[in-house]
Amino acid sequence: MNIVPPVTMPNLVVQAVSQPAQLTREERQQDLLMHQMVRATVEEGGQEKALLQFGERRLWVESRVPLRAGERLSLQVIETHPTLKLRILDTGLLERLGRSLHMLGSRLDVSALAAGLLRNTAPQGAGPGAESLALNLQSLVAGLKGEGDKALSAAQLQALSGQLGLALERQLLAGQTQQASASLKNALLHAKVQLEGREAAFSRHLQPLLGAVAQLPQFLGAPGDAVLPSGLGEGARQVVDALLGLARLQPGPESGAAVERLAHLLGQGLERHLSAFSAPDAEALSRLRQVLAELVPLSLAPAAEAAVVSRLDGVQRDLLANLLRLIRREPPRHQGAEGEGLMRRLAAGLEKELLAGLRQGVEKSAEALQHLEFWQMCRARMAEIGADFLPLPLGFLDQGYLLARRHDAAREQQDAADQQAWSLSLYLELEGLGRLQIDCLYQEKGLFVRFSCRDGQSAAFLAEGREDLTQALGAELLRSATFSGDAETPEKALIRSLIPTEIRIVNARV
Length: 510
Description:
There is one protein chain. By secondary structure, the protein is α+β, with helices and mostly antiparallel strands. The protein has 19 helices and 13 strands. It has helices at 25-29, 91-100, 110-121, 130-144, 154-164, 168-173, 177-181, 184-214, 216-221, 234-248, 256-275, 282-300, 305-309, 314-328, 336-384, 456-463, 466-473, 490-498, 501-505; strands spanning 2-4, 12-13, 37-44, 49-54, 57-62, 72-79, 85-88, 387-391, 397-408, 420-430, 434-443, 446-453, 478-484. The strands form two sheets. The chain has a seven-stranded mixed β-sheet, with no helix packed on it. The longest helix is centred in the last third of the chain and has 49 residues, at 336-384. The two termini are 16 Å apart.
C-alpha cells in the first residue's frame, strides 16, 4: 500500500505486512473505493515503520516519513490496483479553503492595487530592495491592464506567481529575501502596517479635541466664557467654539445666517487641526467638506434630508445627524444627561469620520491580502493532487485561472518522452463572451483542444476559427479541436477541483 503525502513531504512507500485472517461483515462492506476518504490512527509510530489502524483493521506500513503514535491521518484513495495507494490530506487546509470560498465571488484588481502601492509607497531611496519592488509593481501595472494588442508572454506568466507573492513564505524560509521583498504581497503587508501606524498616531492626535467635545455640556453650564483645556491647539479651539455657538442657537428659520457662519468656522477649525498632524489625510478633509456642505441647507429645510443622506455613506450620515440635533434642540437640552449623550455621540462620530479614510485603507489592504492568501491555499491544495494553479488577474477578465498537470502514462516507462502527457485548462469569465473553458492535452506528440462556452451560439462562433487555429499550430501538432456549449462557471469548476467529491457529498469512513 502506498501513501502519497502533501507536496512538502516525500512519497511514502507503504507495505502491508499483515492482514487479519478473517474479515467481519462490516469490513467486507467497507472495501476501499477510488477517491474514498478514510481516517487512520497511528497505533505505533516510528521513523521507517508504523502500525496504522483503520477501524478494526491494522496494517504495518513502511515509510521514510516519521509517523507519531496517536497521530490521526486523513487519507484519500488514489489507486486500488495493483496496489492500494493513499494520499495524506491536509484537512486544516481544506477547512481554511472552505471558509475562504466566498472570495470567489469578488475580483481583485491587481493592476490598480499595484498602481496605488507604487504611488503611495514612494519606493525610491527606501532601501536596497526598493528598486526591485518598483520594477515589479510597474510590471504588474503594465502587464495586467490588458491594454493594447501585445499578448502576455510565457515568461510573464511564469513570473506572475512570484510577482504576486504566492511563494513569499517559502522564499523567506529559503533565504531568497530579495525576491520576497519585491513581491506584491510583501508590499501590501508593509503598506498595511504603515496605515495602521498612521491610524494610531492620528487617533492620538485627535484625543484632546474629542475630549473637549465630550465636555461641551460642562462648558455650556459654566457662567461667562468657557475655559477650555490648556492643551488644545488653535484649530481645536475653533472647533469647540463653533460647536458651542451651534449648541446655544435658538432653533428657527432666522438662525440660518448664524448656522452658515458657525459651520464655516467649524470647517476652518477642523482643517487647521488636521493640518497640524505630521501627515494630514486629504480624504478626511474631502469627506468633512461633504458633510458640512449639507449642514446649512438641511438646518433650514429638514424635508430635504431623505434626498441628501443618499449621497453620503453611513459614517457621514451619523455625523450629519448629530450636528443637526445640536442645531435643532433647545439649548437647555444640551446640558445634563441628554446633552452628555449627544456630545459623546458627536465626538465618536467625528473620530469615525476623520479616521474613515485610513480605516478604509487598512480594510482594503486586509481584503487584498486575504485574496492573495486564498490563491496561495488554492496552489497548496492543487499541489497536493499534482497540479499547478495560477490565478489570472487580467484587466479584461472578470474571473480567470489556469490549471496545469503532468501525467505519466506508465511509471515504468518514464524515460520515454512519448509516454508522458501534459494537460492545461483555462477557466475564464470574459465580459462579452461569458464563461469559457479551454482544455488542452498534449500526448504522443499531439495536441487535443476542447473549447467549452456558455452556450451553443458562442461555441458556433468560436468554431468558425477552427481553420485559423489549425494553420497557426499546424495540422501535424493539432490532432483535434472540439467546441461545445456546456462550460461551468470558473467558480464552480474551481470548487469541484479544490474540494474532493467525497467531502461535498458523503463522508465515507473506515
